[in-house]
Amino acid sequence: MTVTSAGHTSSPVLVAQGLDAGYDGVPVVRGLDLVINQGEVVALLGANGAGKTTTLLTIAGLLPPISGRLTVLGEVAHDERGRGRRVRRNSLTRTWRRARRGLSLVPEDRGLFPGLTVNEHLRLSKSKTNTSNTSNDILDLFPALAPLRTRQAGLLSGGEQQMLAIARALATMPKLLMVDEMSLGLAPIIVERLLPLVRSAAAATGAGVLIVEQHVHMALAVSDRAAVMSRGVVTVQGDSRELEARSDILESSYLGEN
């Protein structure tokens, strides 16, 4: 149990310990240690190819871990630490099971259905345990979508589509929300408007949030903590305010990718 920056006690929704992940047994991510608590926003930063998306896919269950320990929403999804140790896998290793327990992923391509309206996306994603008027509740967080309720997703702007993708994820009432490259294909001014909405959503729902982002300073401004990944290894992590003040650390960790 941890005390968050807001002063509330919370339990972790994600714990990765010495996690190796990759493809066909070849590690892309190595030795990942990462914790996300309820109501906390954590930014995973790094250049293209650093291993950020691989990390998200592994947490979501779309890629099997190679080694290490992964605990998602209080359940051990994988435990293999050292040679000869027992590998522990349960039903959480199936992606649908993690989703039902409260994990929601917004992929970088947004995953929307062009022919469905804003309202239809939200209704389809509504949690079965949620008896409230989900569409209205979610649109309170994204007021720019309210006048577009009946518009098809394929007719929305890039920024509006990204808002809808996040709103749809929130309609599932997630305990852990992961957002991959929100800024992809969007102008910086649009990203500046969108990232604070993620911060507001975490505060309103109590979900733990992991955002993967290349816009370093924008992500640091809305996150509680951040980790910088380079060539599959987290080179530095800590309080976002402290990291933002240490541009030398960010440059050596982030720009060192080039």
Automatic annotation (TrEMBL):
Keywords: Amino-acid transport, ATP-binding, Nucleotide-binding, Transport. It holds the Pfam family ABC_tran. One of its GO terms (biological process) is L-amino acid transport. InterPro entries: AAA+_ATPase (IPR003593), ABC_transporter-like_ATP-bd (IPR003439), ABC_transporter-like_CS (IPR017871), BCAA_Transport_ATP-bd_LivF (IPR052156), P-loop_NTPase (IPR027417). One of its GO terms (molecular function) is ATP binding. Residues 14-256 form the ABC transporter domain. PANTHER family: HIGH-AFFINITY BRANCHED-CHAIN AMINO ACID TRANSPORT ATP-BINDING PROTEIN LIVF. Belongs to the ABC transporter superfamily. This is Unannotated protein. The lineage of its organism: unclassified sequences, metagenomes, ecological metagenomes.
